[in-house]
Amino acid sequence: MTATLNAVERVLSVPDEQTRWDTYAPRYERLLAADLTADAVPAWLTEWSALDAEVGQAASKLATHADLHTGDEAIQARYARFLEEVLPQVQRTEQALTEKLLAVPGYVPAPDFALTYRRFRDAAELFREANVDLGVTHEAQMNRHGVLTGNQKVTLGGEELTVPQAKQRMDSPDRAVREEAWHALAASNQGIAPGLDALMLELIRTRQQLAWNADLPGYRDFMWRRLDRVDYTPEDCRAFHEAVRDEVVPLAAEIMGDLAARLGLDAVRPWDYNRNNLLDPEGREALKPFTTGAQLEDLAQTAFEGLDADLAGRFRSMRDGLLDLESRPGKMTHAYCQYFPVQNEPFVLMNVVGTSEDVRVLFHEVGHAFHGFLSGDAQPLVWNRWSPIEFVEIPSMAMEFLTLDHLGHVFSPEELARYREKQLQGVVAFLPWAAQMDAFQHWLYAEAGENLTIADLDAKWLELDKTFHPFVNWDGLDESVRAKGWHYYHIFRAPFYYIEYAMCYLAAVGIWREARGNPAQALAHYKASLRLGSTVPVPELYRAAGVEFRFDREYIRGLMTFLKEQMAEG
């Protein structure tokens, strides 16, 4: 454990000079001063890309280090200084560089840069000087969410636990244990609720001002342009919400009704429903395939070796400081994959406690890591790596499915059947949550109007929760607990980013459907699409992965039918 943490600290180390603007300024000034002709653009872009990668890597490492030490004031202050002193200067200078590029006479971008060039143009049109400093405020506000939640403790049975440790008790087959854990988590969440409420009101005001500064009526309009959502509209999202309500919620209710009947439950109470890990219908103990982070790494290594030698080698390279898996106090409780572009290295942060859900999440986050590796190998320019966000969850979610046939060393045949069933059920359980998260944000930033109160947010969340999770019985419980379901990471730190999970989960099921018949071809499509990075439009990326870019009612209905068939096979 200590050796692992020491390796992580080495990886995340950022020299002091890389936290100062004067380190980068001369190189930016040289780019600005260059006599730029159409023929000179490619070399100029290469130099700019390398500089962007260095700044981006420093930002990523400082942010990750802050997430691993939420209670360390010095580490938090170092990151805050970088946000305040370096990033605003970078944003201003990069706007000037973009304008310089767009003004080059006779320049026609190469095919693999054309899409990025168009995005540069659109971003330049959205830029406002007033949003530079306000953006720093916004970043600092979002970072406060990690401080509030990273230091959160749960008191359960006289023991002080981290949130992931307490959530592990929710997997118990003993209903009394689950209920006790749920109440303890609810009490802990209510304890930090006032701070999160106050923070959200600040964020709403800041986000609205960002939109107004950009001469746009609301934050949804601002984010639609900032996120480059050119392949679908808010109306398409509304149609998705309605399709999930009509096509998926009844299936989720059917699954939960069957589970409740088999377990002899009078109703599905909040402590009986964990969308990430539904109850075992036979009341068996939750699967516990490992104990330590090192054991999780080992079992994943073997699974990747069974899947693909190249991917296995990529994962092996991450095991020296690019994985921080175990839960501990002071560490933010979310899981994510970070990226360090100079070395083309991904970094995975998790909070594992020994569950089968941890296995799934590791494959998910390492799928992101593979995206970073493969797009970084294929795309020299840093802006062409990764992909548009409508695709970025496909590498992660598809990896959850592609590893299903390579876990015989982890689970017995019976256990593997349970794990597989939970994976399929998890898609059905996730889609209503995704629709609810997206619908809430559309309401919040485009429909609710000004002068919102926390009571308004709570009331809307309750309304949506009753629509998308009608099968969970809250009778006799404090509805203020249910109303705070919007106190979720993405609402605070990744605004308007959630429907992409649903799009990509649907695509991941499509990739797995191909893999059921031709695993080698499905894997080849998967890897080829990752190498394209951000050089082609979203629909073309989906086609490269062997699926369609669709999330309409008919498509969702067909995939739900496929999932029902697979679950029936067992």
Structure description:
This protein is mainly alpha-helical and 570 residues long. It has a domain at 2-108. Helices cover 65% and strands 4% of the residues. The protein has 23 helices and five strands. The protein has helices at residues 2-11, 21-33, 41-68, 73-85, 87-102, 111-126, 130-150, 163-168, 175-213, 219-226, 234-263, 293-307, 309-318, 356-378, 394-402, 413-447, 454-468, 479-483, 489-493, 499-517, 519-531, 538-544, 553-569; strands at 154-156, 159-161, 323-326, 336-340, 345-352. The strands form two sheets. Strands 3-5-4 form a three-stranded mixed β-sheet, with helices on both faces. Strands 1-2 form a two-stranded antiparallel sheet. Strand 1 (154-156) and strand 2 form a beta hairpin. Helix 3 (41-68) packs antiparallel against helix 4 (73-85), helix 5 packs across helix 6 (111-126) and helix 16 runs antiparallel to helix 23 (553-569). The longest helix is centred in the middle third of the chain and has 39 residues, at 175-213. The model has no long low-confidence stretch (mean pLDDT 95).
